[in-house]
Write a structure and sequence with these properties.
single chain; 3-stranded antiparallel beta sheet; 782 residues; Rossmann fold; alpha/beta
């Protein structure tokens, strides 16, 4: 009874879930867990900061295959043991594509599984159980030549649930129509009351704004969030695979993305849908990158008309008229429709005419792929949707010419005003509107951001009561990334940085008290930093890192360290590849007056943004050589070198010098060898360094074993490594643990080597061998 949709590779044939065009490049996922609130007593430590107030966090990340195996096959999840899975994410983040991949994988890999796909928008007010037993089962009956579902077929269906063989894949919870207005509460009720459904394994998808923005009645679900591609690693890998037949085009696109001022586009194309469309655009277009997401979407719109120009030719006038009407339809749908992205025929007809009219705009929109028929309503009439929700939002932005549509503040009587700036469904449209390039809108955009910055909600002066003022300010911060001509951009960014990294000082009964800036305001400010003008944000954070102007009242609490740590953390989120950000973090690492927590955060941030950067690599290697470094930070630095220095000659040479040092403790030497092993595979310099290390007369046995093992991994069969391990095994002063490890390493690198085999045989003949090592030697020979 499995009903599955095949993955689509045609970007014009699907409204949601455009499949990735590149093999082996999958969207990663992160396990989302809600923190338990801490029981705090007394003052809050500056070292803890706003971390205490974070409600959710990504606690574990998964690559595609690991998610399928660990979560779905082995049921290793913290809440439901793999029975209740929610996949949440932004539009175009690959939720539907992932669900399609899960459907195919479960059918292949999970024995006796019955996979049922339900687009929740298709329920149209029906209960899920009713839909399954009436609509879905009837469709199955028709496919096997029956007019309706027989009693036997229904009984067999129930039996499948009772045997726990059914997988329900529920797509688009945010598109489900409910009388209560909260799809999460409604679907939870249906799960609870329909006992049969509760026996199925359920995987559902939902937009993140609904999942996080409502009272979540599905708290028994294990939640996994689709994560963006990493930039530059995964984005560039995707591009190079896409353009494998014409590598010069891929190289040029990667190069243009790295240009200063393209940070916003870098962020946008971490989204799988937008990256796919960008590659399509680059493949057929002029090869120019815009500065704003509105500019990017305008390129996508132009491409849409090119893709079918031979099959459905249009004039400039037709395209202009269609775009205008699509904008009016999109705006009205977002504003009024009960299901914003599921458009009934009667509603669509008001803007685009009748589909039966060959000359209608609706017929043209369907032919061009802007709208797709996605089902029927209760009157058996077609239901339509835009190719993708993000294009609906773009067309809506093009249809708005007065900023008061988003905000018309009436301070003394808010019920008479307009406050779409606080409605989540309008945020993306507002940002797209601010990115429009028409000169006529420049003053309008200036006035809207002025209004957001100066918005007063009248809820009082205390921090916790000015929620709407902060939200308006955060929207302004995101808006200036799209409208770069705004005159007060530096001021806005500076304020966001202060909120994201600072402490709040209040006076209570004549006593100064320092608290972390009120969560979720501080957390929202950190998110706003990632959305605002990247150049301004990095400059402000660097100034904070280098500032010594904190007042005396803060110094005794070490708030300067806390603030720098938070600034370093923020740079790690927004400074990828930015030379100024990397230089500031390196300078911080080299400071002699830094506490361990701040230094560790600086290391972590350098790792995030400094891949392949020689200055960053040199700074981390220098840190490894420090004699005053705590063990935890040393481990962090070694791991960071491994992650950002793969194949880098400077990293390899520096680690080689580190290994040669006579003042190096064994633990650091071991970590350096381990790092060299991971970043130096096949590299001649790394091989030479390890060979020289093995030939040293001042090497302890444990480090000699580790170096030989590393050499064997990056240069399998290396004779010097084999001889070193043989000599080690023949030593009379060797500890049992090191002898066992040497035997194990020799097995891995000495396959077929006569000297290695002879050494293992001699080891077995020794009368002083512990049983464990004897077993390891015998196993190695076997």
């Amino acid at each position: 009874m499995a009903e599955r949709r095949k993955l689509t590779t045609n970007p014009l044939s699907s409204t949601e879930g455009v499949a990735l065009q590149v093999d082996d490049v999958y969207v990663p996922l992160g396990l989302v867990e809600r923190k338990k609130p801490s029981k705090r007593q007394g003052d809050v430590s500056p070292e803890q900061g706003s971390e205490l107030y974070k409600e959710t966090e990504i606690t574990k990340t998964f690559e595609h295959d690991a998610f399928l195996e660990e979560v779905l096959k082995h049921k290793n999840t913290p809440k439901s043991k793999g029975k209740r899975i929610a996949v949440i994410g932004e539009p175009g983040a690959g939720k539907t594509t992932l669900l399609q991949q899960i459907a195919d994988w479960v059918s292949r890999e999970i024995h006796q599984s019955i996979v049922i796909w339900v687009s929740l928008a298709d329920l149209r007010g029906k209960e899920l159980k009713t839909y399954l037993f009436e609509t879905w089962l009837t469709q199955v009956s028709e496919k096997i030549g029956k007019a309706e579902a027989t009693k036997q077929l229904k009984d067999d269906f129930v039996a499948l649930f009772n045997r726990n063989n059914v997988w329900l894949l529920l797509d688009g919870l945010d598109e489900m129509s409910t009388s209560s207005g909260n799809p999460l509460t409604e679907i939870a009720r249906q799960f609870r009351e329909a006992g049969l459904i509760s026996q199925a394994r359920i995987v559902l998808t939902c937009r993140v704004n609904l999942w996080d923005g409502s009272i979540n009645a599905l708290d028994d679900f294990d939640t996994y969030r689709t994560l963006d591609f990493s930039y530059p690693e995964q984005v560039e890998r995707f591009i190079h695979k896409w353009f494998s037949a014409i590598p010069e085009k891929g190289n040029q696109l990667c190069s243009d993305l790295q240009e200063p001022g393209k940070e916003r586009i870098q962020d946008l194309v971490k989204n799988p849908l937008r990256l796919t469309l960008l590659c399509l655009n680059w493949q057929s277009g002029d090869g120019k990158l815009p500065d704003t997401q509105a500019g990017l979407y305008q390129q996508f719109v132009d491409d849409f008309y090119k893709w079918k120009k031979d099959e459905f030719a249009t004039t400039s006038g037709q395209r202009q008229k269609l775009n205008i009407k699509l904008g009016e339809l999109a705006k009205a749908a977002i504003d009024k429709e009960a299901t914003r992205f599921r458009l009934r025929q009667d509603f669509v007809n008001q803007f685009l005419g009748d589909v039966d009219d060959e000359n209608s705009l609706l017929k043209l929109a369907l032919n061009r792929g802007w709208l797709n028929s996605i089902g029927i309503d209760e009157q058996r009439k077609p239901v339509y949707a835009f190719f993708h929700a993000s294009f609906q939002e773009y067309f809506a932005a093009k249809a708005i010419d007065d900023w008061h549509f988003f905000l018309n503040h009436v301070p003394k009587n808010p019920s008479q005003g307009t406050y779409r700036i606080f409605e989540l469904q309008w945020k993306q449209t507002i940002l797209l509107w601010l990115g429009r390039e028409e000169e006529k809108l420049k003053q309008q955009k200036q006035e809207l951001i002025d209004a957001l910055v100066n918005f007063k909600d009248g809820c009082g002066k205390w921090n916790r009561k000015r929620f709407y003022e902060y939200q308006a300010y955060f929207l302004a911060a995101a808006g200036i990334a799209e409208f770069r001509a705004y005159s007060r951009s530096p001021e806005i960014v500076e304020q966001i940085v202060n909120w994201a990294t600072g402490y709040l000082k209040i006076v209570f009964f004549n006593k100064k008290i320092y608290l972390p800036f009120h969560y979720p305001i501080a957390e929202e400010a950190n998110l706003a930093l990632q959305q605002t003008d990247r150049t301004e944000a990095i400059a402000a954070l660097v100034r904070m890192l280098q500032s010594n102007n904190l007042d005396d009242d803060t110094r005794w609490l070490n708030l300067d360290d806390f603030t720098r740590r938070e600034a370093a953390s923020s740079l790690g989120e927004i400074g990828t590849g930015n030379e100024i950000a990397i230089a500031a973090l390196v300078q911080l690492l080299q400071s002699n007056h830094l506490n361990n927590s701040t230094r560790k955060q600086a290391v972590s941030s350098v790792e995030k943004i400094g891949t392949g950067n020689e200055i960053a690599i040199a700074a981390l290697v220098q840190l490894l050589q420090s004699t005053n470094l705590d063990d935890d930070t040393r481990r962090e630095a070694a791991l960071s070198v491994e992650k950002i220095g793969t194949g880098n000659k400077i990293a390899i040479a520096a680690l080689m010098q580190l290994l040669k040092s006579t003042n190096l403790d064994d633990d650091t030497r071991w970590r350096a060898a381990s790092s060299l092993e991971k970043i130096g595979t096949g590299n001649e310099i790394a091989i030479t360094a390890l060979v020289q290390l093995l030939q040293s007369t001042n090497l302890d046995d444990f480090t000699r074993w580790r170096a030989a093992s590393s050499l064997g991994k990056i240069d399998p069969g290396n004779e010097i490594a084999i001889l070193a391990l043989v000599q080690l095994l023949q030593s009379t002063n060797l500890g049992d643990d090191t002898r066992w490890r040497a035997a194990s390493s020799l097995e891995k690198i000495g396959t077929g080597n006569e000297i290695a085999i002879l050494a293992l045989v001699q080891l077995l003949q020794s009368t002083n061998l512990d049983d464990f090592t004897r077993r390891e030697a015998a196993s190695s020979l076997g």
